[in-house]
Write a structure and sequence with these properties.
single chain, Rossmann fold, alpha/beta, 5-stranded parallel β-sheet, 7-stranded parallel β-sheet, about 375 residues, 15 helices, about 45% helix
């Protein structure tokens, strides 16, 4: 098949492309390099800043490449925000893609209208980026996000694309159940892909000084919960300086991030998530124990009853403290959690096997 993957979040499409190419498919990834992350791509749709000038230049790049975006068997959008332009302004591009290609799929791979709607209007989640129980998280980031993605142009664009695309593929349990509420007949769950061929795995020994690793995306720290995790880590380091140390990494390119992870014993990530993210899965594939999103529901969705290596934490500082402290005080747990983490990613997230599931989903859509 000829496949066009448009847009990029967290290296998902780039990794999926590697799996698809291994299966013999022709794949083009067209995306922005996501700023400092420097993800690779085949066609650059880059927009370095949010300035009007860069927006116009980005639009010109998109228009120049439109003839290259024709004749594909499958087009998949990373989200309704598949270009570095306001989502409602990309609808003419979406309609062009749908008119000049075979099947078009929407990725439910991030925060969008239907996920927010499930958070705000239903009791699907015990906690989320936007609410804990009935208490709304009133942050500047959430206010801006709700204005655009729940009430504004991005919400309208998401509805238009979701209602008319051929299928919707969700990568996390949270996004899957959100879309299943509204599109049960065309929503499919497929786990995140991890390219294990290029990852060096190592079962960790019992550490003398446990390396607690946390990656910070400055502009998304409140969304990911690292703003609450980091102070807890520093408090544990202060109390147990002979047993642990904190490695804080902020806004480094993806390849450098992978290298820094090699020395970690424990990684903290995604406080409000129920499911491990791409960064967490990368850490697990390397043998790093993850503290973050590991609720029962994603394991159930995968029919996984044996391997449950993620140290799940609630969005509560005391719970984070207790869970990390127990790891620091009982480092003998690390080798088994490390072994399980490697096996878990190999079992559920191998990029080639994930790519096969995408091909089956695309072919199965009529």
């Amino acid at each position: 098949m000829r496949i066009l993957l448009l847009g990029e979040f967290s290296h998902l499409h780039c990794t999926l492309a590697q799996g698809l190419r291994t299966l013999g498919h022709e794949v083009c990834v067209a995306a922005s390099d996501s700023g400092w992350k420097r993800y690779p791509y085949d066609i650059s749709l880059n927009r370095p800043t949010n300035s009007l000038t860069d927006g116009v230049l980005c639009l010109c790049r998109v228009l120049r490449h439109l003839p290259d975006f024709r004749g594909y068997d499958v087009v998949q959008l990373i989200s309704p925000y598949f270009l570095r332009l306001r989502s409602e302004r990309t609808l003419p591009v979406y309609r062009y893609l749908k008119r000049h290609n075979g099947k078009l799929f929407l990725g439910a791979f991030g925060t969008d209208y239907y996920y927010i709607r499930a958070c705000m209007e239903t009791d699907t989640f015990r906690y989320s980026d936007f609410k804990t129980g009935d208490v709304y998280r009133d942050t500047p980031f959430n206010r801006v996000t709700l204005d655009d993605w729940y009430r504004g142009g991005a919400a309208r664009a998401t509805r238009a694309i979701a209602e008319t695309c051929d299928g919707i593929i969700a990568c996390l349990w949270e996004y899957y159940v959100s879309y299943m509420l509204y599109f049960p007949d065309k929503t499919t769950f497929i786990p995140l892909p991890v390219d294990l061929r290029h990852i060096s795995s190592r079962v960790r020994n019992i550490p003398n000084v446990m390396n607690l690793f946390i990656g910070i995306q400055k502009e998304r720290s409140v969304l990911k919960g690292t703003d609450r995790m980091l102070p807890v880590l520093y408090e544990i380091e202060r109390r147990y300086p002979e047993h642990c140390r904190v490695t804080r990494v902020e806004n480094v390119p993806y390849l450098r991030y992978q290298q820094l992870l090699d020395d970690a014993d424990v990684q903290l990530d995604q406080l409000y998530s129920y499911t491990p993210s791409m960064n967490s899965l990368l850490a697990m594939a390397k043998g790093v124990t993850v503290v973050g999103g590991g609720e029962p529901e994603p394991y159930q969705l995968l029919n996984e009853t044996c391997l449950q290596p993620i140290v799940n934490v609630l969005p509560d500082e005391q719970d984070i403290y207790n869970k990390v402290e127990q790891l620091v005080l009982h480092p003998e747990r690390i080798p088994d959690l490390s072994r399980q983490s490697i096996e878990y990613v190999a079992r559920h997230h191998d990029a080639v096997e994930v790519a096969r599931r995408y091909v089956q989903a695309w072919n199965g859509c009529r």
